[in-house]
Amino acid sequence: MKAFVFHGPGQSAWEEVPDPAIKEPTDAVVRVDAVTICGTDLHILKGDVPEVQPGTILGHEAVGEIVEVGGDVRTVRPGDRVLVSCISSCGRCSYCREAMYGQCRGGGGWILGHLIDGTQAEYVRVPFADLSVHALPSTVDSKDAVLLADIFPTAYEVGVLNGRVRPGDTVAVVGAGPVGLAAITTAQLFAPERIVVVDLAPARLEAAKRLGADAVADAREAPEQLVADLTDGLGADVVMEAVGVPETFELCTRMVRPGGRVANIGVHGRPATLHLEELWIKNVTITTGLVDTHSTPTLLRMAAAGRLPTAQLVTHTFPLDRMAEAYDVFARAADTGALKVVLGGEQHEVAVRGA
């Protein structure tokens, strides 16, 4: 089969690799129909995630069809159309029993495209299939469903739920990339008074307005003053960091009101300064987190009912074999206007192994 393989910082290729096979009785093999590229994949290509070994197939989000299952798999079977979650769950360790699947100590967590071969391939082996894939209703298109593998649960859980968005809140989202835009849409489920979005790119600020932002601000033009003006000088009740650089995290801490919450979603590769000399007296809560994907079934039901605007986040589509081009477009988002890039998505006849 063909797959997108990481060969070290700045080196990758769409190339021939061995087909995946069942290794454990809890595994499934999925024929990939649609995948997407995550900002974390770009971090890996830059060498920012040293745990990823050269020779690893990248990707941790996919939609596809089951072609083979291990003997202990009970909830899916060959021919089923499924969403492959970005998080794998053993279901047995203490963290999984508390639905903290991202912290799984039984061999799961974020492993696809990180510690084992991932989804940017024609086929992928998925460990712990009973808890790590989700059956898809026929009404949800593959290009839409793949956004529920990572960005929507990440925005909802690590941003909206960790930030405890409540009716009447002022919510600020710093970063209008795919996760920040998903945070805008899912924050609206809790009826905040207003949502303010900060970014550098005019196209992303326009996308934020289309998705429900009440006010937008250029990050270079003192956005904390806009938030102060809208809140009688108090600041936002909830501020979500959706970029992952020190400057945006520090901006978030300046925008939050006393007693407010800063929910860090972004993946940080450099240290940020925590100004406790200013924050200690303000009763500010700061949360961090890796997504657990416990909300994925709920989000899938909402998508099936047409309550999530997933399609509006997809700006570019490619066939799987144009993976390198798709990476280039996604990496140059400021020039290309890319939000979410989806590869594949065509419907195929199911090829069941061993049939």
From TrEMBL:
One matching Pfam family: ADH_N
Named cofactor requirement(s): Zn(2+)
Gene source species: Streptomyces hyaluromycini
UniProt-listed PROSITE patterns: ADH_ZINC
UniProt name for this protein: Zinc-dependent alcohol dehydrogenase family protein
Record family assignment: Belongs to the zinc-containing alcohol dehydrogenase family.
Record's keyword terms, sorted: Metal-binding, Oxidoreductase, Zinc
All residue ranges annotated as the Enoyl reductase (ER) domain in the record: 8-343
